[in-house]
Amino acid sequence: MNPDAVVRLVAARCLAYPDERLYAELPLLRGALEGVRGGGGLAAFLDHAERTAPLELAAHYTDTFDTHNRRCLYLTWWTDGDTRRRGLSLVRIKGVYRDHGLEFDSDELPDFLPAALEFAARHEEPGTALLQEHRAGLELLRLALAGVDTPYTGVLEAVCGTLPGPSPQTKEEAKALARSGPPRELVGLEPFGPGVDLPWPTVSRAERTPA
User: Which pLDDT tens digit goes with each residue over 45-102?
Assistant: First the structure.
């Protein structure tokens, strides 16, 4: 498995809700990262998890990934917000998974970042295209996490490091990336059309109705 795939799989586990499974798999995840380029931020997160009580890490996770604070793990939230258009985007992502032999069967939405990362690890070309299509949202999430005290920053930095080209350094650069749309050379997914400025929804996950 190539290094980017390993990073994506480990990041997917780190970005899921920190339950007993995460703690049971810490040695396995740490072993998978040995010698892997770009895995430093992930290793630092695993070290943090190991020395943090499960309830404390779970509370931090819930507080960190909150749409009200503009830190959201759902890719289409960044492009569509809480609009009717988002439902079409979710159906489309399910279709991408299905086209590659995967039926999405989860209580989560198909745009949940850990699910997209696992897909991108196992199906590199269309998975990278999916992540790159949502690159602006990923980078804005990374920048938002960097503005708070959280070990999840290193996880997002590792994820963005698996994508082509340098990461935007400011929110303005990331928003410009959103307006430019996905790179034309990426194949495997047909874009909706020109990128749009991010809507910055203000409704929290607890308040909104699932798409």
Answer: 999 999 999 999 999 999 999 777 789 999 998 888 877 889 999 999 999 999 998 8
The SS3 call for residue 95 is: helix
For residue 145, what are its two tokens? 């996490």
Question: Directed axis angle between helix 135-146 and helix 124-133, to 10°?
Answer: 70
Give the predicted TM-score (pTM) of the model.
0.79
Residue 11 scores a pLDDT above 90? yes
Neighbours of 34 (CB within 10 A): 9
3-state DSSP helix/strand/coil percent for the chain, to nearest 5?
A: 60, 0, 40
Helices 84-99/124-133 angle, 10° precision: 170
Residue 166 to residues 36, 193, 209, Cα–Cα distance (Å): 19, 23, 35
Please name the residue that has the structure tokens 């997914």: 189
